[in-house]
Specification:
This protein is 55% helix and 0% strand. By secondary structure, it is mainly α. The protein has 4 helices and no strands. The longest helix has 20 residues, at 28-47. The protein is elongated. It has helices at residues 11-24, 28-47, 51-54, 73-81.
């Protein structure tokens, strides 16, 4: 059984959808269905990950400029609150 939904989108999104429809030669509803399938598949993959896997691409990407942060994190935080570092 098919279901029908109605959504409201802003004019910018409507314009982009119309342009994509013309460019791809697809109906707007086909594009929305495809986008929804892709979103739900990505969401399902993401929800199966444990927390550290969700941010694994971020680990090691930032530098604190504090060489001993792991050992003196309390002091570093207090110092930053006082206006240091």
């Amino acid at each position: 059984m098919n279901s029908q939904i109605t959504i409201r989108i802003d004019s910018g999104l409507a314009k982009a959808l119309e342009q994509a429809s013309r460019r791809l030669g697809l109906r707007r509803s086909d594009i929305v269905r495809q986008a929804l399938r892709q979103y739900l598949a990505a969401e399902a993959r993401s929800s199966r990950k444990v927390p550290h896997e969700r941010v694994s691409d971020l680990i090691g990407k930032l530098a604190s400029q504090v060489p001993d942060l792991a050992e003196s994190h309390r002091e570093s935080i207090l110092d930053s609150l006082r206006g240091g570092r």
